[in-house]
Automatic annotation (TrEMBL):
Protein name, entry field: Putative proline/betaine transporter
UniProt main location, coarse: membrane
Source taxon at top rank: Bacteria
Gene3D superfamilies hit by this protein: MFS general substrate transporter like domains
Function: May be a proton symporter involved in the uptake of osmolytes such as proline and glycine betaine.
Membrane protein topology class: Multi-pass membrane protein
Keywords attached to this entry: Cell membrane, Membrane, Symport, Transmembrane, Transmembrane helix, Transport
Family annotation (PANTHER family): ALPHA-KETOGLUTARATE PERMEASE
Annotated organism of origin: Microlunatus phosphovorus (strain ATCC 700054 / DSM 10555 / JCM 9379 / NBRC 101784 / NCIMB 13414 / VKM Ac-1990 / NM-1)
Gene Ontology MF annotations: symporter activity
Gene Ontology CC terms: plasma membrane
Domain called Major facilitator superfamily (MFS) profile: residue spans: 31-441
Amino acid sequence: MTEPLNSDPNTMPAAPTATIAPPTAQDRRKVITASFIGNFVEWFDYAAYGYLAATISKVFFPESDPTTALLATFAVFAISFLIRPLGGIIWGRIGDRVGRRTALSWSILIMSGATVCIALLPGYASIGLFAPVLLLLVRVVQGFSASGEYAGASSFLVEYAPPNRRGLYASVVPASTASGLLLGSLLAALLTGVLSDAQMHSWGWRLPFLLAAPMGLIGRYIRVKLEDTPVFRALEDKELPPAPLGQLFKENLRPLLIALGAAILNAVAFYVLLSYMPTYLSEELGFGASESFLATTVALVTYIGCIFFTGIASDRFGRKRMLITASVLFIVLSVPSFLLLDGAGFLLVVLIQVVMGGVLTLNDGTLPSFLSELFPTRVRYTGFAFSFNLANALFGGTAPFICTLLIAKTGSQVAPAWYLVAAAFVSLCAVLASSETFRKPLRDF
Protein backbone atom coordinates (compact mmCIF):
# COMPACT_ATOMS: atom_id res chain seq x y z
CA MET A 1 0.00 0.00 0.00
CA THR A 2 1.45 3.31 -1.04
CA GLU A 3 -0.72 5.71 0.96
CA PRO A 4 -1.21 5.96 4.73
CA LEU A 5 -4.55 5.25 6.35
CA ASN A 6 -5.48 8.72 7.46
CA SER A 7 -8.94 9.45 8.80
CA ASP A 8 -8.67 13.22 8.25
CA PRO A 9 -11.02 14.02 5.34
CA ASN A 10 -9.04 17.17 4.54
CA THR A 11 -5.78 15.37 4.00
CA MET A 12 -6.95 12.29 2.09
CA PRO A 13 -6.46 12.45 -1.66
CA ALA A 14 -9.70 12.83 -3.56
CA ALA A 15 -10.66 9.99 -5.86
CA PRO A 16 -10.67 9.22 -8.73
CA THR A 17 -6.96 8.71 -9.28
CA ALA A 18 -5.08 9.62 -12.43
CA THR A 19 -5.70 6.16 -13.90
CA ILE A 20 -9.48 6.55 -13.70
CA ALA A 21 -11.07 8.91 -16.19
CA PRO A 22 -13.50 11.35 -14.53
CA PRO A 23 -17.14 10.83 -15.48
CA THR A 24 -18.53 12.84 -18.37
CA ALA A 25 -21.83 14.71 -18.33
CA GLN A 26 -23.32 11.87 -20.37
CA ASP A 27 -22.09 9.30 -17.82
CA ARG A 28 -23.74 11.25 -15.03
CA ARG A 29 -27.04 11.52 -16.91
CA LYS A 30 -27.06 7.75 -17.39
CA VAL A 31 -26.35 7.22 -13.71
CA ILE A 32 -29.16 9.56 -12.68
CA THR A 33 -31.61 7.85 -15.04
CA ALA A 34 -30.62 4.34 -13.94
CA SER A 35 -30.74 5.23 -10.25
CA PHE A 36 -34.14 6.86 -10.60
CA ILE A 37 -35.71 3.99 -12.55
CA GLY A 38 -34.19 1.25 -10.41
CA ASN A 39 -35.16 2.83 -7.11
CA PHE A 40 -38.61 3.69 -8.49
CA VAL A 41 -39.25 0.04 -9.34
CA GLU A 42 -37.99 -1.24 -5.98
CA TRP A 43 -40.18 1.09 -3.95
CA PHE A 44 -43.28 0.75 -6.07
CA ASP A 45 -43.03 -2.98 -5.40
CA TYR A 46 -42.51 -2.43 -1.68
CA ALA A 47 -45.17 0.27 -1.27
CA ALA A 48 -47.99 -1.62 -2.98
CA TYR A 49 -48.39 -3.70 0.17
CA GLY A 50 -48.82 -0.66 2.40
CA TYR A 51 -51.44 1.00 0.20
CA LEU A 52 -53.48 -2.18 -0.12
CA ALA A 53 -53.14 -3.15 3.55
CA ALA A 54 -56.86 -2.89 4.31
CA THR A 55 -57.75 -5.25 1.44
CA ILE A 56 -54.86 -7.62 2.12
CA SER A 57 -55.94 -7.90 5.76
CA LYS A 58 -59.30 -9.30 4.64
CA VAL A 59 -57.72 -11.75 2.18
CA PHE A 60 -55.11 -13.20 4.55
CA PHE A 61 -56.68 -12.64 8.00
CA PRO A 62 -60.45 -12.88 7.40
CA GLU A 63 -61.44 -14.48 10.71
CA SER A 64 -60.17 -11.60 12.82
CA ASP A 65 -62.06 -8.47 13.71
CA PRO A 66 -61.11 -5.49 11.49
CA THR A 67 -58.65 -3.90 13.92
CA THR A 68 -56.92 -7.19 14.69
CA ALA A 69 -56.73 -8.07 11.00
CA LEU A 70 -55.23 -4.67 10.20
CA LEU A 71 -52.73 -5.03 13.05
CA ALA A 72 -51.77 -8.48 11.74
CA THR A 73 -51.23 -7.08 8.26
CA PHE A 74 -49.04 -4.28 9.59
CA ALA A 75 -47.22 -6.77 11.81
CA VAL A 76 -46.24 -8.71 8.67
CA PHE A 77 -45.18 -5.35 7.19
CA ALA A 78 -43.05 -4.67 10.26
CA ILE A 79 -41.53 -8.16 10.56
CA SER A 80 -40.28 -7.94 6.99
CA PHE A 81 -38.16 -4.99 8.15
CA LEU A 82 -36.36 -7.04 10.79
CA ILE A 83 -34.20 -8.66 8.11
CA ARG A 84 -33.12 -5.29 6.80
CA PRO A 85 -30.16 -4.56 9.14
CA LEU A 86 -28.69 -7.97 8.27
CA GLY A 87 -29.52 -7.36 4.63
CA GLY A 88 -27.82 -3.96 4.87
CA ILE A 89 -24.62 -5.62 6.06
CA ILE A 90 -24.75 -8.29 3.34
CA TRP A 91 -25.57 -5.90 0.50
CA GLY A 92 -23.10 -3.37 1.89
CA ARG A 93 -20.42 -6.04 1.96
CA ILE A 94 -21.12 -6.86 -1.68
CA GLY A 95 -21.24 -3.19 -2.62
CA ASP A 96 -17.99 -2.32 -0.81
CA ARG A 97 -16.09 -5.39 -2.02
CA VAL A 98 -17.50 -6.36 -5.42
CA GLY A 99 -19.08 -3.10 -6.52
CA ARG A 100 -22.08 -0.84 -6.12
CA ARG A 101 -23.47 -1.78 -9.55
CA THR A 102 -23.45 -5.52 -8.80
CA ALA A 103 -25.35 -5.09 -5.54
CA LEU A 104 -27.94 -2.79 -7.09
CA SER A 105 -28.59 -4.95 -10.16
CA TRP A 106 -29.20 -8.05 -8.03
CA SER A 107 -31.34 -6.30 -5.42
CA ILE A 108 -33.86 -5.13 -8.01
CA LEU A 109 -34.11 -8.62 -9.50
CA ILE A 110 -34.81 -10.24 -6.12
CA MET A 111 -37.35 -7.56 -5.17
CA SER A 112 -39.28 -7.96 -8.41
CA GLY A 113 -39.39 -11.74 -8.13
CA ALA A 114 -40.67 -11.60 -4.56
CA THR A 115 -43.32 -9.04 -5.47
CA VAL A 116 -44.68 -11.23 -8.28
CA CYS A 117 -44.88 -14.08 -5.77
CA ILE A 118 -47.20 -11.97 -3.59
CA ALA A 119 -49.54 -11.57 -6.57
CA LEU A 120 -49.71 -15.35 -6.94
CA LEU A 121 -50.26 -16.25 -3.28
CA PRO A 122 -53.55 -18.00 -2.43
CA GLY A 123 -55.62 -16.40 0.32
CA TYR A 124 -56.76 -17.69 3.70
CA ALA A 125 -59.94 -19.11 2.21
CA SER A 126 -57.86 -21.47 0.02
CA ILE A 127 -55.05 -22.70 2.26
CA GLY A 128 -55.84 -21.42 5.75
CA LEU A 129 -52.94 -20.43 8.01
CA PHE A 130 -50.39 -21.24 5.32
CA ALA A 131 -51.52 -18.09 3.48
CA PRO A 132 -50.26 -15.53 6.05
CA VAL A 133 -47.13 -17.65 6.65
CA LEU A 134 -46.27 -17.58 2.93
CA LEU A 135 -47.05 -13.87 2.84
CA LEU A 136 -44.63 -13.30 5.70
CA LEU A 137 -41.86 -15.30 3.99
CA VAL A 138 -42.19 -13.37 0.74
CA ARG A 139 -42.25 -10.08 2.62
CA VAL A 140 -39.02 -11.04 4.37
CA VAL A 141 -37.42 -11.58 0.95
CA GLN A 142 -38.72 -8.18 -0.11
CA GLY A 143 -37.24 -6.62 3.02
CA PHE A 144 -33.87 -8.23 2.35
CA SER A 145 -33.84 -6.85 -1.18
CA ALA A 146 -34.95 -3.35 -0.18
CA SER A 147 -32.15 -3.14 2.40
CA GLY A 148 -29.59 -2.76 -0.37
CA GLU A 149 -31.43 -0.29 -2.54
CA TYR A 150 -31.66 3.11 -0.86
CA ALA A 151 -28.12 3.15 0.49
CA GLY A 152 -26.61 1.73 -2.69
CA ALA A 153 -28.35 4.18 -5.00
CA SER A 154 -27.42 7.11 -2.75
CA SER A 155 -23.76 6.08 -2.56
CA PHE A 156 -23.69 5.52 -6.32
CA LEU A 157 -25.01 9.01 -7.05
CA VAL A 158 -22.85 10.79 -4.47
CA GLU A 159 -19.70 9.14 -5.80
CA TYR A 160 -20.55 10.15 -9.37
CA ALA A 161 -21.67 13.70 -8.52
CA PRO A 162 -19.59 16.87 -8.83
CA PRO A 163 -18.41 17.81 -5.30
CA ASN A 164 -20.65 20.89 -5.13
CA ARG A 165 -23.80 19.05 -6.31
CA ARG A 166 -23.82 15.91 -4.21
CA GLY A 167 -26.99 16.98 -2.39
CA LEU A 168 -28.87 17.51 -5.65
CA TYR A 169 -27.72 14.20 -7.14
CA ALA A 170 -28.57 12.23 -3.99
CA SER A 171 -32.03 13.80 -3.85
CA VAL A 172 -32.87 11.66 -6.90
CA VAL A 173 -33.17 8.71 -4.49
CA PRO A 174 -36.05 10.02 -2.31
CA ALA A 175 -37.67 11.53 -5.42
CA SER A 176 -37.69 8.14 -7.15
CA THR A 177 -38.86 6.46 -3.94
CA ALA A 178 -41.80 8.84 -3.73
CA SER A 179 -42.50 8.35 -7.44
CA GLY A 180 -42.82 4.62 -6.80
CA LEU A 181 -45.19 5.39 -3.95
CA LEU A 182 -47.09 7.77 -6.22
CA LEU A 183 -47.71 5.11 -8.84
CA GLY A 184 -48.78 2.72 -6.08
CA SER A 185 -51.17 5.31 -4.70
CA LEU A 186 -52.63 6.07 -8.14
CA LEU A 187 -53.15 2.40 -8.90
CA ALA A 188 -54.73 1.79 -5.50
CA ALA A 189 -57.05 4.78 -5.98
CA LEU A 190 -57.97 3.60 -9.49
CA LEU A 191 -58.63 0.02 -8.43
CA THR A 192 -60.71 0.94 -5.39
CA GLY A 193 -62.63 3.44 -7.52
CA VAL A 194 -63.57 1.18 -10.43
CA LEU A 195 -63.75 -2.28 -8.83
CA SER A 196 -66.28 -3.57 -6.34
CA ASP A 197 -65.20 -4.82 -2.93
CA ALA A 198 -65.71 -8.40 -4.09
CA GLN A 199 -63.52 -7.83 -7.17
CA MET A 200 -60.82 -6.15 -5.10
CA HIS A 201 -60.74 -9.03 -2.61
CA SER A 202 -60.79 -11.65 -5.34
CA TRP A 203 -58.21 -10.43 -7.86
CA GLY A 204 -57.97 -6.63 -8.03
CA TRP A 205 -55.40 -6.29 -5.24
CA ARG A 206 -53.02 -8.61 -7.14
CA LEU A 207 -52.64 -6.39 -10.23
CA PRO A 208 -50.04 -3.90 -8.86
CA PHE A 209 -47.84 -6.78 -7.70
CA LEU A 210 -47.90 -8.37 -11.17
CA LEU A 211 -46.43 -5.20 -12.67
CA ALA A 212 -43.18 -5.95 -10.83
CA ALA A 213 -42.00 -8.47 -13.43
CA PRO A 214 -41.65 -6.23 -16.51
CA MET A 215 -40.57 -3.16 -14.54
CA GLY A 216 -37.92 -5.10 -12.63
CA LEU A 217 -36.40 -6.55 -15.79
CA ILE A 218 -36.20 -3.07 -17.34
CA GLY A 219 -34.54 -1.65 -14.22
CA ARG A 220 -31.97 -4.45 -14.06
CA TYR A 221 -31.13 -4.11 -17.76
CA ILE A 222 -30.39 -0.41 -17.34
CA ARG A 223 -28.22 -0.94 -14.27
CA VAL A 224 -25.98 -3.66 -15.70
CA LYS A 225 -25.06 -1.29 -18.55
CA LEU A 226 -23.37 1.17 -16.16
CA GLU A 227 -19.78 1.30 -15.00
CA ASP A 228 -19.10 1.33 -11.29
CA THR A 229 -18.29 4.63 -9.62
CA PRO A 230 -14.89 6.27 -10.21
CA VAL A 231 -14.00 6.36 -6.50
CA PHE A 232 -14.75 2.66 -6.08
CA ARG A 233 -12.73 1.73 -9.18
CA ALA A 234 -9.86 3.87 -7.91
CA LEU A 235 -9.74 1.87 -4.69
CA GLU A 236 -9.86 -1.37 -6.68
CA ASP A 237 -6.74 -0.27 -8.56
CA LYS A 238 -4.88 0.03 -5.25
CA GLU A 239 -5.33 -3.71 -4.66
CA LEU A 240 -6.42 -3.20 -1.06
CA PRO A 241 -7.50 -6.14 1.11
CA PRO A 242 -11.25 -6.64 1.59
CA ALA A 243 -12.79 -4.00 3.84
CA PRO A 244 -13.27 -5.66 7.23
CA LEU A 245 -16.64 -5.25 8.92
CA GLY A 246 -14.69 -4.38 12.06
CA GLN A 247 -13.49 -1.22 10.36
CA LEU A 248 -17.06 0.01 10.32
CA PHE A 249 -17.82 -0.70 13.99
CA LYS A 250 -14.41 0.17 15.44
CA GLU A 251 -13.15 3.08 13.34
CA ASN A 252 -16.51 4.54 12.34
CA LEU A 253 -18.66 3.93 15.42
CA ARG A 254 -19.43 7.62 16.02
CA PRO A 255 -20.59 8.25 12.42
CA LEU A 256 -22.60 5.03 12.65
CA LEU A 257 -24.46 6.18 15.77
CA ILE A 258 -25.05 9.64 14.32
CA ALA A 259 -26.36 8.11 11.10
CA LEU A 260 -28.72 5.84 13.03
CA GLY A 261 -30.14 8.72 15.05
CA ALA A 262 -30.44 11.02 12.05
CA ALA A 263 -32.30 8.36 10.05
CA ILE A 264 -35.01 7.81 12.67
CA LEU A 265 -37.09 10.83 11.64
CA ASN A 266 -36.99 9.73 8.02
CA ALA A 267 -37.97 6.20 9.01
CA VAL A 268 -41.01 7.23 11.05
CA ALA A 269 -42.22 10.27 9.11
CA PHE A 270 -41.86 8.71 5.67
CA TYR A 271 -44.00 5.69 6.51
CA VAL A 272 -46.52 7.59 8.64
CA LEU A 273 -47.11 10.42 6.15
CA LEU A 274 -46.67 8.69 2.80
CA SER A 275 -47.58 5.04 3.38
CA TYR A 276 -49.78 4.70 6.47
CA MET A 277 -51.82 7.90 5.94
CA PRO A 278 -54.40 6.50 3.48
CA THR A 279 -55.19 3.73 5.97
CA TYR A 280 -55.35 6.27 8.82
CA LEU A 281 -57.75 8.51 6.91
CA SER A 282 -60.06 5.68 5.90
CA GLU A 283 -59.94 3.45 9.00
CA GLU A 284 -59.64 6.08 11.76
CA LEU A 285 -61.26 9.24 10.35
CA GLY A 286 -63.92 7.67 8.14
CA PHE A 287 -62.87 9.02 4.75
CA GLY A 288 -63.63 6.98 1.66
CA ALA A 289 -60.81 4.84 0.30
CA SER A 290 -60.64 6.78 -2.98
CA GLU A 291 -60.53 10.14 -1.16
CA SER A 292 -57.80 8.89 1.16
CA PHE A 293 -55.63 7.72 -1.71
CA LEU A 294 -56.26 10.93 -3.68
CA ALA A 295 -55.17 13.12 -0.75
CA THR A 296 -51.95 11.15 -0.35
CA THR A 297 -51.38 11.28 -4.11
CA VAL A 298 -51.51 15.08 -4.11
CA ALA A 299 -49.08 15.14 -1.17
CA LEU A 300 -46.71 12.82 -3.01
CA VAL A 301 -46.73 15.03 -6.12
CA THR A 302 -45.83 18.03 -3.98
CA TYR A 303 -43.16 16.02 -2.18
CA ILE A 304 -41.52 15.02 -5.46
CA GLY A 305 -41.63 18.59 -6.72
CA CYS A 306 -39.98 19.94 -3.56
CA ILE A 307 -37.33 17.28 -3.01
CA PHE A 308 -34.90 18.52 -5.66
CA PHE A 309 -35.04 22.07 -4.28
CA THR A 310 -34.12 20.64 -0.89
CA GLY A 311 -31.12 18.90 -2.45
CA ILE A 312 -30.01 22.17 -4.02
CA ALA A 313 -30.54 24.02 -0.74
CA SER A 314 -28.44 21.47 1.16
CA ASP A 315 -25.59 22.07 -1.31
CA ARG A 316 -25.81 25.78 -0.60
CA PHE A 317 -26.64 25.99 3.11
CA GLY A 318 -25.29 22.70 4.44
CA ARG A 319 -26.68 19.36 5.53
CA LYS A 320 -26.91 20.18 9.26
CA ARG A 321 -28.96 23.32 8.81
CA MET A 322 -31.53 21.54 6.65
CA LEU A 323 -31.84 18.50 8.92
CA ILE A 324 -32.12 20.63 12.07
CA THR A 325 -34.84 22.75 10.47
CA ALA A 326 -36.81 19.64 9.52
CA SER A 327 -36.62 18.21 13.04
CA VAL A 328 -37.72 21.45 14.69
CA LEU A 329 -40.67 21.85 12.32
CA PHE A 330 -41.84 18.31 12.99
CA ILE A 331 -41.68 18.91 16.73
CA VAL A 332 -43.75 22.10 16.37
CA LEU A 333 -46.25 21.10 13.66
CA SER A 334 -47.04 17.38 14.09
CA VAL A 335 -49.61 17.56 16.91
CA PRO A 336 -51.49 20.62 15.57
CA SER A 337 -51.64 18.98 12.12
CA PHE A 338 -53.21 15.77 13.42
CA LEU A 339 -55.63 17.74 15.58
CA LEU A 340 -56.79 19.60 12.49
CA LEU A 341 -57.26 16.36 10.53
CA ASP A 342 -60.04 15.19 12.85
CA GLY A 343 -63.24 16.64 11.42
CA ALA A 344 -61.49 18.37 8.53
CA GLY A 345 -62.93 18.51 5.05
CA PHE A 346 -61.17 16.97 2.09
CA LEU A 347 -59.41 20.17 0.97
CA LEU A 348 -58.02 20.84 4.45
CA VAL A 349 -56.79 17.23 4.69
CA VAL A 350 -54.97 17.68 1.38
CA LEU A 351 -53.46 20.99 2.55
CA ILE A 352 -52.23 19.46 5.81
CA GLN A 353 -50.65 16.53 3.98
CA VAL A 354 -48.99 18.85 1.47
CA VAL A 355 -47.51 21.02 4.24
CA MET A 356 -46.24 18.06 6.25
CA GLY A 357 -44.92 16.42 3.09
CA GLY A 358 -43.06 19.63 2.30
CA VAL A 359 -41.49 19.63 5.77
CA LEU A 360 -40.51 15.99 5.25
CA THR A 361 -38.60 16.91 2.09
CA LEU A 362 -36.28 19.09 4.17
CA ASN A 363 -35.14 15.90 5.87
CA ASP A 364 -35.45 13.40 3.04
CA GLY A 365 -33.82 15.54 0.37
CA THR A 366 -30.77 16.06 2.58
CA LEU A 367 -30.38 12.72 4.36
CA PRO A 368 -28.96 10.61 1.47
CA SER A 369 -26.01 12.94 0.87
CA PHE A 370 -25.49 13.47 4.62
CA LEU A 371 -25.29 9.74 5.34
CA SER A 372 -23.09 9.05 2.31
CA GLU A 373 -20.63 11.76 3.34
CA LEU A 374 -20.39 10.47 6.92
CA PHE A 375 -18.60 7.29 5.84
CA PRO A 376 -15.40 6.65 3.88
CA THR A 377 -15.52 4.90 0.51
CA ARG A 378 -14.18 1.63 1.92
CA VAL A 379 -17.29 1.17 4.10
CA ARG A 380 -19.70 3.76 2.70
CA TYR A 381 -22.26 1.31 1.36
CA THR A 382 -22.15 -0.86 4.50
CA GLY A 383 -22.26 2.06 6.93
CA PHE A 384 -25.13 3.77 5.18
CA ALA A 385 -27.08 0.53 4.61
CA PHE A 386 -26.71 -0.77 8.15
CA SER A 387 -27.59 2.48 9.95
CA PHE A 388 -30.44 3.38 7.61
CA ASN A 389 -31.95 -0.10 7.64
CA LEU A 390 -31.60 -0.49 11.41
CA ALA A 391 -33.53 2.76 11.87
CA ASN A 392 -36.18 1.54 9.44
CA ALA A 393 -36.37 -1.90 11.04
CA LEU A 394 -36.85 -0.52 14.54
CA PHE A 395 -38.95 2.55 13.79
CA GLY A 396 -40.01 2.76 10.12
CA GLY A 397 -41.43 -0.66 9.38
CA THR A 398 -43.14 -0.70 12.76
CA ALA A 399 -44.62 2.79 12.33
CA PRO A 400 -48.02 1.73 10.86
CA PHE A 401 -48.32 -1.02 13.49
CA ILE A 402 -47.33 1.28 16.37
CA CYS A 403 -49.64 4.06 15.18
CA THR A 404 -52.60 1.66 14.91
CA LEU A 405 -51.76 0.14 18.30
CA LEU A 406 -51.34 3.54 19.99
CA ILE A 407 -54.73 4.65 18.72
CA ALA A 408 -56.34 1.40 19.87
CA LYS A 409 -54.76 1.59 23.35
CA THR A 410 -55.15 5.32 24.03
CA GLY A 411 -58.33 6.02 22.13
CA SER A 412 -56.62 9.14 20.76
CA GLN A 413 -56.42 9.70 17.03
CA VAL A 414 -53.57 12.15 17.65
CA ALA A 415 -51.28 9.43 19.02
CA PRO A 416 -49.29 9.08 15.74
CA ALA A 417 -48.35 12.76 15.99
CA TRP A 418 -46.60 12.24 19.33
CA TYR A 419 -44.67 9.38 17.78
CA LEU A 420 -43.50 11.79 15.08
CA VAL A 421 -42.48 14.33 17.72
CA ALA A 422 -40.38 11.75 19.58
CA ALA A 423 -38.64 10.65 16.37
CA ALA A 424 -37.89 14.26 15.43
CA PHE A 425 -36.36 14.96 18.85
CA VAL A 426 -34.00 11.97 18.61
CA SER A 427 -32.90 12.96 15.11
CA LEU A 428 -32.35 16.55 16.22
CA CYS A 429 -29.98 15.42 18.95
CA ALA A 430 -28.05 13.19 16.54
CA VAL A 431 -27.62 15.90 13.93
CA LEU A 432 -26.52 18.45 16.55
CA ALA A 433 -23.76 16.01 17.56
CA SER A 434 -22.46 15.72 13.98
CA SER A 435 -19.98 17.78 12.00
CA GLU A 436 -20.90 19.50 8.74
CA THR A 437 -20.03 17.34 5.72
CA PHE A 438 -21.18 19.15 2.60
CA ARG A 439 -17.95 21.02 1.76
CA LYS A 440 -15.53 18.24 2.60
CA PRO A 441 -14.05 15.80 0.08
CA LEU A 442 -15.16 12.20 0.23
CA ARG A 443 -12.80 10.08 2.32
CA ASP A 444 -11.25 6.89 0.96
CA PHE A 445 -10.67 5.31 4.42
